[in-house]
Design a protein that fits this description.
Blueprint lengths: L1 H10 L7 E8 L5 E7 L29 E6 L5 E7 L5 E7 L5 E8 L25 E8 L5 E7 L5 E13 L7 E11 L27 E7 L5 E7 L5 E8 L4 E8 L20 E2 L2 E2 L2 E8 L5 E8 L12 E9 L2 E8 L30 E8 L3 H11 L4 E4 L6 E6 L1 H5 L4 E7 L4 E7 L8 E3 L6 E9 L2 E9 L2
Antiparallel strand pairs: 1-2, 2-3, 3-4, 5-6, 6-7, 7-8, 9-10, 10-11, 11-12, 13-14, 14-17, 15-16, 17-18, 19-20, 20-21, 22-23, 23-26, 24-25, 24-27, 27-28
Length: 481
């Protein structure tokens, strides 16, 4: 499909434009959004298409040497919107579309001519910063479903900063559900900026990643923004050498899975019982090269650390590299998949369950002579949030509250069949006297909405009630501080 879309862009109106597609996402209605870079500009060759939506559709006709571009195709692959974005050598590395067809993009902006980058405020108090310095800054931008640019800002410090990945989590719908959904936004990538210039901000969770010190010459980073585009969390991620994050994705039950690579022997190590755990960097004969790394954070408990591991091998021959990189990550039910490339000739963790998957493709070696191959790995993690999803599917009520007993934070999951039959859902908490403690509407697309903070109530038994148009279910929960 990407080849066909690229062909439509390159040859529309007989232009021969070089297009590099870095990212793609498909909206719920089947619209396809792509982003990347182009070697032409809006004034001499790029096929700008500006649809009539009744709004001020973003369309850039500035001359730039290598701007980024965004394009939208409808479900039948017809090009309906295409525009360049940014200034010289702006790159879009990732984009996501929410359920209201709002588009979120991220990437990097080179220092040259940065004053002409299209910064934009959506709210009076949303996060805004000027270009931080160095060779490049990361950026984040948001377009509404009418294709208007609503929010755009630099994110970075005084050195190199690049955002490789963006992920979103939806909160409660705004008053105009068809045009705006309250969305939490998360960026990740690499930074060489120190803590004096990079906009570090703790999320207040001592069990999360809140590292305010640059380790080595380059760390990975994560940045989070709330539904009002305010920065709520920014942290370095890494050890004492070079580290990067290349991709991330929310799995079910709010677990944020992150993939990247590290040269640090002291990278974050969080073992989890029953999960794959490689506790140390595999070293080459000539020193340490990169290993892939995978991290899981619990998005429903303010991104508490759940699990992390190295993933890679080495070579026994001096002078040959043994780098391993995880460039992509995705989830499906009980499994997490990572993909990347490896130079490791020895000890790469090849594995195949050919009993469960007879006939599965399996190549447990490098095809070339000390060159790289791609790899694909599947993890059956057995992490609690994933197991809870399976429990709720098997639960006869289709409504599960956990953990039980709890020390204050309570999470709940709802079977998809109940969600489909009930458009409006409400959660209530009552004490044993029948007094209502909490009542709020919930949006099942939001990880943040599937939790209750009962840390302020007294120790004892409470009833959690779920109601909808065709629904009335309750569960008991014990709070034990």
């Amino acid at each position: 499909m990407l080849h066909n879309l690229k062909h439509k862009l390159q040859h529309r109106n007989n232009f021969n434009t070089h297009i590099s597609i870095n990212t793609v996402d498909v909206a719920q209605n089947g619209d396809v959004y792509i982003g990347g870079t182009t070697e032409t500009d809006a004034g001499s060759g790029f096929p700008n298409v500006t649809p009539s939506t009744g709004c001020t559709v973003y369309s850039q006709y500035k001359h730039s040497a290598q701007p980024a571009f965004i394009a939208k195709f409808d479900a039948s692959n017809q090009l309906v919107w295409a525009t360049t974005f940014g200034i010289d050598t702006t790159v879009i590395y990732d984009l996501k579309v929410n359920s209201a067809n709002e588009l979120f993009i991220t990437g990097s902006v080179q220092a040259y001519n940065n004053a002409n980058f299209p910064v934009q405020r959506e709210f009076s108090n949303d996060y805004q910063q000027s270009f931080g310095g160095g060779t490049a800054d990361a950026f984040v931008a948001k377009f509404n479903n009418c294709l208007e640019l609503k929010w755009s800002t630099f994110v970075g410090g005084a050195n190199l900063d690049v955002a490789n990945a963006i992920e979103i989590s939806e909160g409660s719908p705004a008053s105009s559900k068809t045009s705006n959904v309250l969305t939490y936004t998360y960026l990740s990538g690499i930074t060489k900026s120190d803590n004096l210039s990079f906009p570090i901000q703790s999320n207040g969770n001592t069990n999360s990643i809140n590292d305010n010190s640059l380790g080595g010459t380059q760390d990975a980073f994560i940045a989070g923004f709330n539904t009002s585009n305010q920065k709520t969390w920014t942290t370095f991620v890494g050890g004492s050498n070079i580290d990067e994050i290349d991709d991330m994705e929310f799995g079910r039950a709010g677990t944020l899975f992150i993939a990247g690579a590290s040269k640090s022997t002291d990278f974050l190590n969080v073992p989890y019982t029953g999960a794959y755990n490689q506790t140390q960097l595999e070293n080459t004969a000539g020193g340490n090269d990169y290993d892939a790394v995978v991290i899981a954070l619990d998005g429903m408990s303010n991104f508490s650390k759940v699990w992390s591991t190295y993933f890679g091998g080495n070579t026994s021959i001096t002078g040959y590299r043994s780098d391993d990189y995880a460039y992509g990550i995705t989830t499906s039910n009980m499994n997490v998949y990572i993909g990347g490339e490896t130079w490791s000739y020895n000890n790469f963790p090849w594995s195949a369950d050919l009993i469960t998957y007879p006939g599965a493709y399996y190549q447990p070696y490098l095809e070339g002579n000390f060159s790289q191959d791609g790899f694909l790995a599947q993890f059956d993690l057995g992490l609690t949030p994933v197991l809870v999803e399976e429990l709720v599917k098997n639960d006869e009520d289709g409504f599960l509250v956990y953990p039980n007993p709890s020390n204050g934070m309570v999470y709940f999951m709802i079977d998809e069949k109940l969600v489909k039959n009930n458009q409006k859902l409400n959660i209530q908490v009552f004490d044993i006297q029948g007094k209502e403690i909490i009542s709020k509407p919930i949006n099942t697309n939001s990880y943040e909405d599937l939790s209750l903070n009962l840390s302020h109530v007294s120790t004892g038994m409470y009833f959690v009630k779920l109601t909808g148009e065709n629904l009335n279910k309750s569960q008991k929960v014990i709070i034990n501080h």
